[in-house]
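Deliverable D2.4 — example input (structure tokens):
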């Protein structure tokens, strides 16, 4: 990575706001600013919809908040898709699909330690989007082969645009669906995913990472060629730190861990305190220290984030904004304690 972690802060891509200016105020307040996705503001701000722009076979129904796939349409649009595979403009996100992205890109972002973008990953997209038979498109081998290539090109175009604003920019591939691919429920096996992901990340430029909120196969992820791994440390940290050997290898090759420390869901946030969260994260780090990890190395390769996005809170955006304030407070307190200010 082109910067040290040092408990810097960044956020989740999705925010519950309907007001773009208020959401951007949150996303610009962290150490590593990001452009927010605001599905409550617009159907086109949804992460799956944004990733779908120009993908062949996609049908959008904004009035029903629906996205689905039509096989006949897919084959009819393939020729145009292949004709544009070397055209970066074909993979750019248009203002229609994200007003927040284009507003964010209008800011002076050069002085920040880094900035961050995100794109819905091919596995999650392929599991979410259904064809006319209600079958996830990831099970269609021909569609899947194009899907991974398409999303890699889309990620690269966004990352290069971000690097024009800040040369230390990076991108998250958001993959909430990864926690399901190792279960019998999905039918998409570990071996298939490993092969597809290796090809995918061979195409995506550095720095790139994965973000998810569930519990996947951590060995699988930690051994992928990624620069940063972001996860829900609040709910999944105890399981994650059991994979000490893979974590050690990941850190030794320069990887950064994004610890999702602060819960943004209303019920979880209400029962917490900042001191409890400090105790929690230090407990996770101590599990690593017991195995010979150096605390300075761990902290230099760690950033802090909210644990999850939260679209369904009863107070809409208040708890989320409080969580971001806590995040910044906790980063300061921990950096002061460990003398890395």
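Example output (designed residues):
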């Amino acid at each position: 990575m082109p910067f040290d972690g040092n408990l810097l802060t960044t956020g989740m891509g999705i925010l519950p706001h309907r007001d773009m200016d208020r959401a951007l105020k949150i996303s610009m307040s962290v150490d590593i600013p990001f452009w927010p996705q605001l599905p409550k503001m617009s159907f086109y701000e949804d992460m799956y919809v944004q990733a779908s722009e120009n993908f062949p076979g996609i049908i959008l129904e904004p009035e029903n908040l629906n996205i689905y796939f039509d096989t006949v349409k897919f084959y009819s649009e393939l020729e145009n898709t292949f004709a544009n595979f070397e055209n970066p403009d074909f993979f750019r996100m248009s203002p229609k699909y994200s007003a927040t992205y284009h507003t964010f890109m209008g800011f002076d972002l050069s002085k920040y330690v880094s900035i961050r973008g995100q794109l819905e990953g091919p596995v999650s997209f392929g599991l979410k989007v259904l064809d006319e038979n209600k079958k996830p498109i990831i099970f269609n081998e021909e569609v899947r082969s194009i899907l991974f290539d398409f999303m890699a090109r889309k990620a690269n175009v966004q990352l290069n645009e971000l690097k024009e604003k800040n040369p230390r920019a990076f991108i998250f591939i958001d993959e909430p669906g990864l926690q399901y691919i190792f279960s019998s429920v999905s039918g998409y096996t570990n071996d298939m995913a490993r092969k597809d992901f290796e090809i995918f990340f061979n195409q995506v430029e550095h720095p790139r990472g994965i973000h998810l909120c569930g519990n996947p196969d951590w060995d699988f992820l930690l051994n992928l060629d990624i620069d940063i791994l972001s996860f829900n440390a609040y709910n999944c940290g105890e399981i994650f730190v059991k994979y000490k050997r893979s974590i050690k290898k990941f850190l030794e090759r320069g990887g950064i861990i994004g610890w999702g420390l602060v819960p943004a869901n209303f019920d979880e946030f209400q029962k917490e305190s900042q001191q409890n969260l400090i105790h929690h994260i230090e407990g996770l780090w101590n599990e690593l220290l017991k195995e010979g990890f150096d605390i300075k190395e761990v902290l230099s390769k760690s950033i802090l984030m909210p644990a999850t996005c939260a679209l369904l809170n009863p107070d809409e955006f208040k708890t989320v904004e409080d969580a971001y304030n806590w995040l910044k407070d906790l980063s300061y307190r921990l950096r002061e304690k460990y003398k890395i200010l």
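DSSP finds 15 helices and nine strands in the chain.
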